[in-house]
Amino acid sequence: MLSGLALADLAWLMVAAVAIDLLVGEARRWHPLVGFGNLASALEHRLNRGRVRKVRGILGWLLAVTPLVALSAWLAGAGGFAVHVALLYFSLGLRSLRDHNLPIARALGAGDIGGARRLTARIVSRDTSGLDEPALAKASIESLLENGNDAVFGTLFWFAVAGGPGALLFRLANTLDAMWGYRNARFGDFGWMAARFDDALNLPAARLTALSYVMLAGDRRRALRCWRKQAPAWPSPNAGPVMASGAGALGVELGGSATYDGVLEQRPVLGDGRTPTADDIVRAWRLVLGTTLLWLGFGTMFAMTNYLIGEGYA
Is the predicted pLDDT of residue 180 greater than 70, yes or no? Predict the structure, then answer.
């Protein structure tokens, strides 16, 4: 491990940070990731112009990420366990996934299509103005599955590798990918570094997330089959395995057509089963929560085993 923390320390620190996130949720004011987003936006407006935009994008990425990760490493070294827990807490978004998606399920259950459309528009980039219940449920579930990896499991993975600074690095890289990593005229060159670095960081975590969804599936063979056969067709190399295995685990069909910026896109089908409903949003949340508990359970068991055979807290 790069963090310098013992396995047992890492396990209990992860449990503490996840518990704080579930109990408290995101900071409503002065959230560090919001401030980072403002910094990234200012850098992009200043640098994304003229020639050599790929080089400018690399420079922008380094200016945005490197000082903050270096500062977090120094603080973690000086402040110890509390700083690692704080860094992981601010990097997690498990409670946020629940708070943004379960209200969509409740609105759909109450027949409030308009309210469900407004709530869904807050978490996805597709046009939700004309979506019906199945399409809204599909959008919410896709967001839950994919962001379960981005906001929770990838963060936990890199915390296990490099402690609080590792978790922060992953979330900052993921945020820049969400802001800059588009394949269009504005960001195609400038966002190259953001997209490629996020893909590289996400590679191991996404496969572990997909495997976890398979392990918790009612029909594991179906979930595994969807992962193997459908993921390669999805545009994102990491979202494909996560969403395909998750859809297979839930026994619903995701993907298909969606409208972005007025343009109808036909995406590959993911999963195998029925059209999703509001109840499936709740099931998707439970899958993400169950996977979190699975990871924490495995981490704690592994750490305690190492402690008992002699590693201890050295």
Answer: yes
**Digit-coded pLDDT (tens) for 95-130:** 999 999 999 999 999 999 999 999 999 999 899 999
With helix as H, strand as E and coil as C, how does the chain read?
CCCCCCHHHHHHHHHHHHHHHHHHCCCCCCCHHHHHHHHHHHHHHHHCCCCCHHHHHHHHHHHHHHHHHHHHHHHHHHHCHHHHHHHHHHHCCHHHHHHHHHHHHHHHHCCCHHHHHHHHHCCCCCCCCCCCHHHHHHHHHHHHHHHHHHHHHHHHHHHHHHHHHHHHHHHHHHHHHHHHCCCCCCCCCCCHHHHHHHHHHHHHHHHHHHHHHHHCCCCHHHHHHHHHHHHHHCCCCCHHHHHHHHHHHHCEEEEEEEEECCEEEEEEEEECCECCCHHHHHHHHHHHHHHHHHHHHHHHHHHHHHHHCCCCCC
Q: Parse the chain into domains and list their residue ranges.
A: 7-308
| The pLDDT of residue 314 | 43
Q: What is the pLDDT of residue 2?
A: 58
Residue 23: pLDDT band with limits 50, 70, 90: very high
* pTM (two decimals): 0.92
Closest CA to 180 of 34, 54, 32: 54
Who contacts 192 (Cβ-Cβ below 8 Å, separation ≥6)? Answer: 54, 57, 58
Environment class of 267 (CB within 10 Å of its CB; exposed 0-12, middle 13-18, buried 19+): middle
Residue pLDDT, tens place only, 237-296: 999 999 999 999 999 999 999 988 888 889 999 999 999 999 999 999 999 999 999 999
